[in-house]
Design a protein that fits this description.
alpha+beta; six-stranded mixed β-sheet
């Protein structure tokens, strides 16, 4: 390669165009404005005439890191987005009509040496009384009592508390827009009607808007939702359809009046042919039903949703149709797809916004020159596939391990599982072990709660757990539960915390 060619290859990206707003677009805009070199021109194109999809308004704890990197004050953010705090997700009815368990954030107990905590719990007979597991989780105990407080951060006696948020997705997008525009991002109002590509390289040269204006850039980020206006035109674009494994293909969403207390957790309730979400905000509660149209009509779905609200509906249910899956290559040429343009993962574990966040972080870590390198693109796509597949398996496990009698749920139990998931379940059943790739999103403690909560019984445990004398082991478990109980007892209620630190102007807790 000549010096001139090398110089061209190192030419920096000077202009970036983000196509589409919403949470994905404005998250990308705010992050790029914060981290790209000064002088990089960032343009975001969106149309007020095009609605955004807000399937869920719940997140996981990783979003705290994203907000911190942007310099966002947590109290200000929660207040201005009408948000509340989230300590986990309650799963109701998945292992039978009256079953209930929590996927709590944070830690459960503490490891001793090389042996994870839950093996001592199993050695003491915990598998015979599975609900006792959550007495060792500060998040679970606090959620059950509708309490919340930030982790006091005592290194000698860590509480194990971790939290995420519920918020109004439209307000979050507006909040980030304000920060992004303050950082120099230029918003252009308009609808994309044409995409121009280089005839030889296939790279995107620019987009034409409905008023005839043209927006050009070195690099494009597709946040246009299901329309996938850019990535869908790129040569080599292919879709992985996961509907055989995750067959729910429709959702209805409706807000209802807020009720007290504002619970510090999301709820996912299994229904006849899918599941219903409940996401408590300060001024309203977000609700929705994810279902399989092959097993439930739209009218039946609407009746189920509206018949299971805590308060009065604040509108008509809004429909959404989707196919669960992902783009095999979310980065092609000079275009990266984020959000729904890159794929759809149903919101069972609140991963939608996280997948935008991780995509942005991955893109920044592999940020291209003006001439993208094929090795960087391949690595981005490989990491994306690994993350999406691991999340897919976690979601499938909820369905496969169900204990319900309806035809939809019987089919879920009978559907052959990916080998990666079968091996994970078998390992836990035989020895109580949970092994995961270090890059997976869901940690061992998340898998533990899923497996225990949905009735998988571990027939064995780590032999080294028996190295601790039974009397010492039992004392260790007692102290663990006592520490959790004492930690939670010091917490205010969630409503009290919101009122004291971050009341939304339109919320009941602001009174």
């Amino acid at each position: 390669m000549t010096e001139a060619m090398m110089a061209i290859d190192q030419e920096p990206v000077r202009t970036v165009a983000i196509i589409g707003g919403g949470s994905a677009g404005w998250m990308a805009a705010a992050a790029l404005a914060r981290f790209l070199p000064a002088g990089t021109a960032i343009t975001l194109v969106e149309s007020d005439a095009i609605g955004t999809v807000g399937v869920g308004e719940a997140t996981i704890p990783q979003l705290r890191l994203f907000n911190q990197h942007l310099g966002i004050d947590e109290d200000d953010f929660v207040a201005r987005t009408g948000g509340s705090f989230k300590l986990g997700i309650e799963f109701a009815g998945w292992n039978g009509a009256d079953s209930r368990y929590l996927h709590a954030f944070g830690t459960i107990g503490r490891a001793v040496g090389l042996v994870p905590f839950h093996h001592y719990w199993l050695a003491a007979g915990g598998g015979d009384r599975p609900q006792s597991l959550w007495s060792h989780s500060a998040c679970a105990v606090a959620a059950a009592q509708d309490r919340f407080d930030r982790d006091p951060g005592n290194p000698q006696a860590p509480s194990g508390v971790a939290w995420a948020y519920h918020f109004d997705a439209a307000r979050y997008a507006a909040y980030l827009r304000e920060r992004a525009e303050g950082g120099g991002v230029v918003r252009v109002e308009g609808r994309v009607v044409d995409v121009a590509q280089n005839g030889e390289t296939g790279l995107i040269a620019g987009v034409t808007l409905d008023d005839g204006r043209r927006v050009e850039a070195d690099f494009f980020i597709d946040c246009s939702g299901f329309a996938a206006l850019l990535i869908g035109r790129m040569a080599g674009d292919r879709w992985d359809d996961w509907s055989a494994l995750l067959p729910c293909d429709r959702a209805l969403a409706v807000p209802c009046a807020s009720v007290e207390p504002i619970t510090p957790y999301t709820r996912a309730t299994a229904r006849t042919a899918g599941w219903q979400w409940r996401i408590p905000l300060q001024a309203r509660t977000g609700n929705g039903l994810v279902y399989s149209s092959a097993h439930l009509s739209d009218d039946e779905a609407a009746a189920t949703l509206l018949g299971n609200l805590d308060g009065a509906a604040l509108g008509d249910p809004q429909p959404l149709r989707f196919t669960t899956g992902r783009r095999q290559a979310p980065w092609i040429g000079n275009c990266v797809a984020l959000g729904l343009a890159g794929g759809f993962m149903e919101p069972l574990e609140s991963t939608s916004i996280h997948l935008v966040q991780s995509g942005i972080a991955r893109l920044l870590s592999l940020w291209p020159s003006a001439t993208p390198r094929t090795a960087d693109i391949a690595e981005f796509n490989r990491q994306s596939a690994r993350e999406w597949l691991s999340i897919r398996d976690f979601l499938i496990a909820h369905y496969a391990l169900n204990g319900r009698d309806e035809p939809f749920w019987q089919e879920r139990r009978a559907t052959p599982l990916p080998d990666s998931l079968l091996e994970r379940i078998a390992l836990f059943e035989q020895s109580g072990r949970i092994v995961r790739d270090e890059h997976e999103l869901f940690a061992e403690v998340a898998w533990l709660q899923l497996l225990i909560g949905q009735g998988v019984v571990a027939k064995g445990y780590h032999p080294l757990a028996d190295a601790l004398p039974a009397a010492w082991r039992d004392q260790f478990l007692d102290i663990s539960a006592q520490h959790v109980a004492a930690t939670v007892a010091r917490m205010p209620t969630h409503d009290q915390f919101l009122r004291a630190h971050c009341p939304a102007p339109d919320a009941k807790v602001a009174a």
